[in-house]
Design goal:
336 residues, 17 helices, elongated, alpha/beta
Length: 336
């Protein structure tokens, strides 16, 4: 019983990587330098707009940036890059879970006109600790047309102490009347190299050994999203207590064996229909999905194109040496 309790306590105490390493200053933000620079200058020059729109793919830092900016515009002594100092009395008050000056609302579950009217009722109240009362509305595209209409009036004539930060992954669903009243920032997907470097730094801090090829595979699985990448990394860290290897990552992702995928690509390049079909059946019989297999083939064919057209291709492909050698063999008997 005691051992079960200790295991349960350990599980409860664990904090996922994306929460543990959520940035709290602009300097710690990964990528998005075009946005960070604009927001930093706004803080340092005290040129704060009444409404901002953060749009982009999930996991690219929209909510994190909104929280940092909300603290920064209230901070008494912002840092040189415009980040909140985290030490002044206002920063400490805003870091409290029950602070009343930074209010977050999830429009996915609070999307009715009544929810917005309730929010508008609160807008008239002045801030408690800082200069601005900041409303962060996540997934704002989920609001109903009636809710958008109710919000519009407040966006047109907001109180001087109020700042709205709207965040969305589907900006095309937001009415033009709302868009025209916001300062828009488009968050970009991050490169595989940026994600790889970031994950390596996190694993170093966590004291975990890793294969660079394995980390690269995790970064690629993130598809440009920091949160997605860290979720995969969490699974890989749970899968093995030892060194995180390339093979471990593939097993967690449910991807096909790279060697078998290379062999399948070789059959396809050689127009060996029988060999390709037999190997496909063998891979699928191991429990791999057709969708993942197709994705693995497309990625391996892309790698093959790099090898055919670039010298030292593995410098940026970061494939295991044996897999890279097999791909080179396929490339050697391929017509350019």
């Amino acid at each position: 019983r005691d051992s079960l309790c200790s295991i349960f306590e350990g599980l409860m105490a664990y904090t996922s990587l994306y929460r543990k390493y959520r940035p709290d200053t602009f300097e710690k933000m990964l990528g998005q330098r075009h946005i960070i620079r604009t927001l930093s200058n706004a803080v340092l020059n005290s040129k704060i707009s009444h409404a901002y729109l953060f749009t982009g793919t999930r996991g690219t830092g929209k909510t994190s940036t909104a929280k940092i900016f909300a603290k920064a515009i209230n901070c008494l002594h912002p840092l040189k890059d415009g980040s909140p100092c985290g030490k002044c009395e206002v920063c400490k008050a805003l870091s409290s879970a029950n602070n009343m000056d930074i209010l977050e609302m999830d429009a996915a579950s609070n999307n009715s006109v009544d929810d917005i009217r309730d929010l508008i009722e609160k807008v008239k109240y002045v801030p408690v600790a800082g200069k601005y009362k900041v409303y962060i509305i996540d997934e704002v595209h989920m609001l109903t047309p009636q809710a958008f209409n109710a919000l519009l009036k407040t966006l047109e004539e907001p109180p001087a102490h109020t700042v709205f930060i709207l965040a969305t992954t589907e900006v095309h669903k937001i009415p033009q009347t709302i868009l025209s009243r916001c300062m828009r920032f488009d968050f970009r997907l991050l490169s595989t190299q940026e994600l790889t470097d970031y994950l390596c730094s996190i694993l170093d801090k966590e004291g975990r050994e890793y294969q660079l090829e394995g980390v690269r595979a995790i970064a690629e699985a993130g598809d440009g999203s920091v949160r997605d990448m860290l979720s995969v990394a969490d699974m890989c860290m749970s899968y093995t207590d030892g060194k995180i290897t390339y093979e471990d990552v593939l097993e967690v992702l449910g991807a096909s064996s790279p060697a078998m995928t290379v062999e399948l690509c070789s059959h396809i390049v050689d127009h060996n229909t029988q060999g390709a079909l037999e190997l496909t059946e063998k891979i699928l019989s191991l429990g791999k999905s057709v969708e993942l297999l197709a994705k693995d083939i497309a990625k391996m064919m892309r790698n093959l194109l790099y090898i055919l057209n670039c010298t030292n291709a593995n410098k940026f492909l970061a494939l295991p040496k044996d897999i890279y050698a097999k791909l080179c063999d396929v490339a050697n008997h391929t017509d350019n």
